[in-house]
Amino acid sequence: MSSELQLKYGCNPNQKPARIFMQEDDLPIEILNGNPGYINLLDAFNGWQLVKELKEATGLPAATSFKHVSPAGAAVGQPLSDTLQKIYFVDDLELSPLACAYARARGADRMSSYGDFIALSDECDASTATMIAREVSDGIIAPSYTDEALSILKSKRKGTYNIIKIDENYIPSPIEQKQVFGITFEQGRNEIKIDESMLDNIITDTKNMNNDAKRDLLIALITLKYTQSNSVCYAKDGQAIGIGAGQQSRIHCTRLAGNKADIWHLRQHPKVLNLDFLPNIRRADRDNAIDIYISDDYMDVIGENLWQNTFTTRPEALTKEEKSQWLKSVTDVSLGSDAFFPFGDNIERAFKSGVSFIAQPGGSIRDDNVIETCNKYGITMAFTGIRLFHH
After folding, report:
1. Could you tell me if 140 and 132 are in contact, meaning their C-beta atoms sit under 8 angstroms apart?
2. What phi and psi, each to the nearest 5 degrees, are found at residue 190?
3. What's the pLDDT score for residue 346?
4. Is 323 a catalytic residue?
5. Digit-coded pLDDT (tens) for 341-365
6. Domain holding 352: CATH number?
7. Can you give the pTM of this predicted structure?
8. 68 given a catalytic annotation
9. Which residues contact 182 (CB under 8 A, 6 or more apart)?
10. Are residues 247 and 303 in the same domain?
């Protein structure tokens, strides 16, 4: 290891020179393959912190799929149902717990995960590497790799796939700095530990919060800790299912994340599961076609060319009524917010996507309206008292 790594360029090709370095110690990473760039490393380091904390909070192996310094998905290694295996396109693989975690993280939002940087909490095994090998991805960071996994990953992208090994015992300085416009900013690292004690202050009439809901709320909150703010995260079944990042208003975060959660649920509709794709269709083209098929304007945009190049026969439309009925059956979704909800409209939107449990800091002058809206729908809400802005 060394104290400096020279990079090809910064965020953009015109931003040179570029490097990462440490003033006194060696870098806590080893580049096993490839030549990671500036944004790759930002994704890698944020992603590693996220999965490390998920593992500590849940005791389960964790994975995340990062794009442009926010997670597209994050999950722990819960077994996959037959339906999830099919919609994640891994029903032909033997899945280790870690592979289940990445299948969930990648599958939360497959369009956003295209070209992702992957972070794993545990040693990368052959099962996980085999799955990664057939997806479009920029690179991976993990504490270690089995020999077989490393061989599989090194063959990806004609041998240029970025593979980073990180020292899992590395502890960063408690004070962090960055420069903006030639001015140095300094702050204490956000070392807040997110655990079940954050969920004790339940302020709604409904008090029930089972273990699955607690796990999913922890996943949502830890995901938000490393998501560009403002941010909202919907979670279910051990994974994020919709992340709304970097919006200027909270309702837009809630809508964006809710729409992604709805798409995740609609991908499990029997009509979607039974779509008959042409053999050898590219994975990205298939994912795009599914998103178009689910969209409200499917009949307007499908076009003869699209379906003839994607499906064996033109699929019957999934109607608005069918989608509405399917989504009405969804319950027990958990939602986390990195800051307080200023209005009850966020709760109204969240309820439409099956939210039954919420964790948010509280502290709005309209908390009473937000609580009242939760009570209206029988939603359990905890005030964490902790804001999780990330910039």
Report:
1. yes
2. -80, 90
3. 96
4. no
5. 999 999 999 999 999 999 999 999 9
6. 3.40.140.20
7. 0.95
8. yes
9. none
10. no
